[in-house]
Fold this sequence. Notes:
Elements lengths: L12 H15 L4 H25 L2 H6 L4 H21 L10 H11 L6 H9 L4 H26 L9 H31 L1 H26 L7 H28 L4 H11 L4 H11 L5 H27 L16
Pfam family, one: SBF_like
Protein name: Bile acid:sodium symporter family protein
Keywords: Membrane, Transmembrane, Transmembrane helix
Amino acid sequence: MLGSLPARFRPDPYLVAMLGTVALAAVLPARGWVADGFDVLTKVAVGLLFFLYGARLSPQDALAGLRHWRLHLTVFASTFLLFPAFGLALAVLVPGVLAQPVYLGVLFLCTLPSTVQSSIAFTSTARGNVAAAICSASLSSLLGIVLTPLLVALLLGGAGGGVSAASVVDIVVQLLIPFLAGQLARRWIGGWMQRHGAALGRYDRGSILLIVYTAFSEGVVAGVWHRIAPQQLLVLFVVEAVLLAAVLLTTSLVSRWLGFGTADRITIVFCGSKKSMASGLPMANVLFAGPGLGLMVLPMMLFHQLQLLVCAAIARRLAARPAPESAAPQPATAE
């Protein structure tokens, strides 16, 4: 039945899989020694995930893209300064509108790096500066390994679990060392990774589903989900919609004010308005291990779907605009 629907009305298979994973954790959460096994498996999966991230990022591409330093600084300012500033401003909604644990999850969301794949894909669809998007999104992901834990320590402090000495060790062991190992191994496995890109993509998505199942299982077993009412989910959706709209509007206005061309402005808007669930879930698993992890990552998971829907609509609208005159002789290849 779903196959007969137009493509734009079909549910995202990955979203369906994620909702199914959450439902499975609600009905059959991991307990006891099974939960311990999933915990170990998740840590191994996170380490391998960041090894693959490191192996994918070409140092040559990153260095070549540094000539767009004004663009990258604008994106990084949006990702690591503007978002956290908006997150801190949302504190006025606690506790009347947002419960404290949910707000901490929103604040954690605001500390995350930008996405890579979707930022590049939307920039390409909207005919933005794809080369700059590749470099900016990749560098944001790299910087996030260091900046996100620092921002968590600065903004959340003890309230959200903070960054203890043990957390720092976990970050180094589970995230930084595998990432650097991937960078070193790139010269030997880069070609193999290109040939098996589809399989590695399935591993990425499978790892995220594993983290989601483990996190939500812990929350179910500890009774965390009794703390959030259904209406809080609706309120959270509205708050995050306003947050996304504010960032989209700010990046659009500031990039125009700074004198960037159309293609660069598109790149800034798409790269500067995203938050990476692929990086955020593994980081949360390291920083906030425990029964409260599910509530910490819930705002991120909701924002992830929201940003995909909104940015896809914006990208399609920008793609439909008339092509520049310089591209007029070859309209068939403009996309």
